[in-house]
Amino acid sequence: MSDLLTTPFPGEKRRGxxxxxxxAQDNNEMTGEAGSGLTYPALLGVLGGGQLARMxxxxxxxxxxxxxxxxxxxxxxxxxxxxxxxxGGWLDFDQLAAxxxxxxxxxxxxxxVDVATLEWLEAHGFVVYPTARTLALxxxxxxxxxFMREAGAPVVDCAPVASVEDVERAGAAWxxxxxxxxxxxxxxxxxNATLRGPSDIAPAFARLGFPARALYVxxxxxxxxxLAVMVARGRDGxxxxxxxxxxxxxxxxxxxxxxxxxxxxxxxERAASIAQRAVEAIGGVGVxxxxxxxxxxxxxxxxxxxxxxxxSGHYTIEGCVTSQFENHVRAVLGLPLGATTMTAPAxxxxxxxxVRNGPAEARGMARALAVPGAHVHVYGKLASRLxxxxxxxxxxxxxIEEAEATARAAADALDL
Length: 416
Prior knowledge:
It is a single chain. This protein has 416 residues and is of the alpha+beta class. Helices cover 28% and strands 25% of the residues. Among the domains are: 26-138, 3-Layer(aba) Sandwich (Rossmann fold), CATH 3.40.50.20; 157-219, 2-Layer Sandwich (Dna Ligase, domain 1), CATH 3.30.1490. The chain is built from twelve helices and 19 strands.
């Protein structure tokens, strides 16, 4: 396979070549074809123990694969269903060795793991997907967008920030408002600020932790809605693209996912193409979540990529032939990817967020489970916080409206 992927985004003027990282580390060579089977006991290592790792473990168990989970604190949601729990920091190499020993592969459930962690694992002969190189390309969100823009993706103008003057210059060039964002560790709106004018810069710097925390500034991009696409890519380069979905945010947190996204077929096709090319560009192996904006004039803009299963793909557990979690397991283990076809004409997922601070308690569970057609998921977190993702509800239907009514009814009954 060539070290260069040179196919541009369809419809985009070329602003650079696709520089996909497809030459893997020596211990991570891409196979010519998907693996044919597993030998048991089969163990998959996961860096991170939250709900994404837990749902990955649930999918893995159906293939007879068990999890080894490493998290900084004991008793994480995934660790409580895992065959092996390891507690330690990402740069605790003795604990990393304890995690990875005997695994078929090591993967991650969030992008906040140190790149050096994956580099150490690769250097010591462990199979790691996504690779350290892939993670390095996407972890710094400014560098991620710079890379994607050079590769030809439709990315909003952005620039690194070293001073107040940098932001003021951006305002003079692009106009106000602007988005000020953290380059590392930002998620669900945490680490971002809206700047209405120059007087907002200093307070935003203080709130976001500048200069200790690196920031970048982004031109304001009006949009009519947010779209997302899950893409699975195998070790052999095989691709499985899930339906494009529409996401609805509440307080910068994903609240509702509607699948498939309604709207213009050309827009949907464009979104799927951008997502696939983004994963190919970084040489990704596993499942990736790509977030996009649809502009008022019908253009699709790239926002960001998550190198892991994603909240916008939870609907696939019941809503697709193969869930995002099962395809992530298949991909990183070198197994053939499964079909991404939907199992119903319409699927809607509604997140359930914490409504109090304190010990977790699923009040209203009986009422939620009594809603016909509702699939209730509670993540097993031991503590609730206001706005924390505690679970989700998925419903299938003949129409988006039908599915959403069912999912909302069950989600509204839950008090987490």
